[in-house]
Amino acid sequence: MNRSINEADALRDEIAHTRAELGETVQALAARADVPARARASAQRGADRMRVASSRPGVWLVVGAGAAAVATIVAMARIRRSRRGWGGFGRRRLRGWL
Predict the structure, then answer these.
(1) Transmembrane residues, as ranges (predicted)?
(2) Are 59 and 53 in contact (CB under 8 A)?
C-alpha cells in the first residue's frame, strides 16, 4: 500500500511538471504569434542601438567613410562602363554579332 501511495505522488508530480512545461510552451507560442509586440520590441532594440552608436562619433566617421568609398567605386565603374560603349560590352565581344 505504501508503494502505491509513492507511485501516485510521483505521478502527481510528473503531471504537475508536465502542466508547467505545457504552460511555458503555450506562452512562448503566444509571444511568437504576437507580431505587433515583436515589431515594437524590434524597433525599440534598433532605437537603443542607434542611441548607443550616436554617442560614439567615431562610428559615424567610419560609416561615412565607408559610404563614400562605396559611392566612389560605383561611380568609377559606371564611368568606365559608359566609356566602353554598348552598355558595358566591349566592341571586341560583340564583333561576331555586328
Answers:
(1) 58-77
(2) yes
- The whole-angstrom distance between residue 1's C-alpha and the CA centroid of its chain comes to 59
Report the SS3 class of residue 16: helix
3-state secondary structure string across 34-98: CHHHHHHHHHHHHHHHHHHHHCCHHHHHHHHHHHHHHHHHHHHHHHHHHHHCHHHCCCCCCHHHC
C-alpha pair distances (Å), 83 with each of 20, 76, 87, 89, 92: 70, 11, 9, 10, 14
CA distance 37 to 43: 10
Query: What CA–CA distance (Å, rounded) separates 85 from 92?
Result: 11
What pLDDT is stored for residue 93 in this prediction?
Answer: 55
CA pair distance 91, 7, nearest whole angstrom:
88
